[in-house]
Amino acid sequence: MPVLLNISQLAICPVEGPQSDAGFVNNAALVWQGEEITWVGASSELPDQFHSEPATDCGGRLVIPGLVDCHTHLCFGGWRGDEFDRRLRGASYQEIAQSGGGIMSTVSATRNASFVSLVQKTREHLDGMLQLGITTVECKSGYGLDVKAELKQLEVYRQLSEQHCITLVPTFLGAHVVPKEFQNAREAYIQLLRENLIPTIARRKLAHFCDIFVEDGAFKPAEARQILNTAKQHGLGIKIHADQLSNGGGALLAAELQAVSAEHLEYVSAEGIHALAQAGVVAVSLPLASLFLREKYLPARQMIDSGVRVAVATDFNPGSAPSYHLPLALTLACLNQGMHPTEALMGATTIAARAVNMHHIAGSLRPGYKADIAVIDAPNLNHWLYHFKDNSCVGVVKNGQWAHRQSGFATGPGL
Ligand code: NIG
Ligand code: FE
């Protein structure tokens, strides 16, 4: 049974309780067997039976649950560096979209990309995420917007689920925007989603969730209600890109439809916050998108104080958040959203796991949970998020196996 010793601070990240309590244990040890955690606590209380097991000395570092990135658009063709320059010269994100750039330009690049090239590119992103300590990733389609290319993206995720150690949670986002060829036939596109794509995807078990972008230029709440109700009838969970660029009623809809999560929420209203709290919908904050679009941030402090659980994720995509650096997102959440380091960590572990319905197996370091663990080269959480290095993660255990371990760790039976 592998043992971790000499952990200066261990964050259990308990599934119940307030977001401000990460369940710290100082001078801790942790034991796992197979894919499951079996014991965690103060080193001084490590039972005798584990003293001669194969151990790794963590060198007085921080140990946290493997991070959960609960919102990404991971598989896409091309990039959009040209738009960066256009935006810096004054064009807005929406103006660029209206002139043929934006989401539709990534749709063209994704439709034109081969399956093999998408697998390769997406695999490279997953490799980079794993090095940062990320062990579970939600991943959306939504850059195909036709039957063939939406299924292609979801098949990329299926293949990588089998080949990569990171746990992938696929989400169908066919309702990202209405594609160009349906611009004058919105109803027909909605019909294609409801009568063809959603049933096919559900039958082939290609997605766990159905997401939709509710915004001017994307989908209206009434259309979203129809699409999401169809998804529910086919057994998919519900997510909503809500109130990102304006207050369009997305949060209220998420509460009404009992969505598992509402994402973005930069422009959420007080009424929307109240509704999310009442309905127990997780709010997913995406600070890298706010930074990159030079937009408002989700009002995390107000939401947590109102009883909403706030997850933190990257939104990794080529247009509004071209980075999968989840630890940087956590530092931004502290600096720009009034979150405390413990709240930010909880938001990228157990609360993020809740946003993908995995909070009973992932995102916490308790006996019975998956042995998904990150070793961080910092003495404690505050130090990690304050000293935002390019990468502080020096070791990752995924499903009970070391997936990445920098040299310099002392290992041996019992040590
Ligand atoms: O979450 N808001 C909609 N979708 C993405 C952006 C997609 C893009 O610009 O390619 C987001 O920000
Ligand atoms: Fe997004």
Describe this structure in a few short sentences.
This protein is an alpha/beta fold and 415 residues long. The protein has 15 helices and 16 strands.
Name the shape in a single word.
globular
- What is the helical fraction, as a range of percent? 25-40%
For the secondary structure, the number of strands is 16
- Spans of at least 5 consecutive residues whose pLDDT stays below 50 are none
Report, as a whole number of angstroms, the end-to-end distance.
14 Å
The fraction of residues assigned to DSSP E strands is: 15-25%
- Spell out which ligands are present: N-(iminomethyl)-L-glutamic acid, fe (iii) ion
Describe the main β-sheet briefly. 8 strands, mixed
Class by alpha and beta content? alpha/beta
Tally of contiguous helical segments: 15
Task: Give the overall average pLDDT.
Answer: 97
**Rg estimate, integer Å:** 21 Å
